[in-house]
Amino acid sequence: MTSIIGRNLLAGAEPDPAGDAGHGPDHPPRVGFFTDTSVCIGCKACEVACKEWNAVPEDGLELTGMSYDNTQGLGADSWRHVAFIEQDRPVRDPGGAGPQAGAAASGMRWLMASDVCKHCTHAACLDVCPTGALFRTEYGTVVVQEDVCNGCGYCVPACPYGVIDQRQDDGRVFKCTMCYDRLGAGQEPACAKACPTDSIQFGPLDELRERAAARLDRLHEDGVADARLYGDSPDDGVGGDGAFFLLLDDPEVYGLPPDPVVTTRDLPAMWRHAGAAAAALLGAAAAVFAAHGTIGKGGR
Fold first, then answer.
1. Residues pairing with 134 in the sheet
2. Residue 33: helix, strand or coil by DSSP?
């Protein structure tokens, strides 16, 4: 691990989030999700498995009237959300495995994607939590301790993806834990286990990035020029995500920010400027007192 002296721990390159969080050198490799939306069929098995395993409360069955999506978005009671996006545009079939297969005659396509907490390399929710309810696990993931959360809500606006949310009945925040209890038992998260098409893949993050790059190359060779990876780069504004995606259109189409930035990135610089300003004020005050003291002595 590189030295942390002189580094901005809230932004920039971060090769070992778990190590920098205090976990020893023998901690497990960082794990994550790679979601290949080109093979998502919108079955919502991931949503159901997440709710069942984590005992997440029911959150209503209200249709938006704009699609078949009844979950509508991520929230305190929806830790997985499968987006349904209908587009009136020619269809390209990436190998016949996805929802686009067989839809060419209609001239429209469905984009489906299972969204989740990104478990950011630089997680602003961690930076602003005053109680330590949010913590970095030995797997590099970010987890909320519901019995420690005091409901202050500081983490809600800090999240650049709008993922973390407060439960209305008590104010505490909840989000995906990447099934921390299952990881400890050597099991994969419930959503990945339930996915019938392997759209949600779980494993060591480095391996997932290699797998995603190979899949992207294959899609480009098949003529799917719009395919792109989202959240995989350690050089992006959050240092790369622990949950990243292969998309078939712009991130905004899926409700994702095009260029997310960790919201606490500039805090170290702000504190340095505040410290410099305070030192200048103290120096000015000392000069004033010294001048008045000299004049007072000379006038006596």
1. 144
2. strand
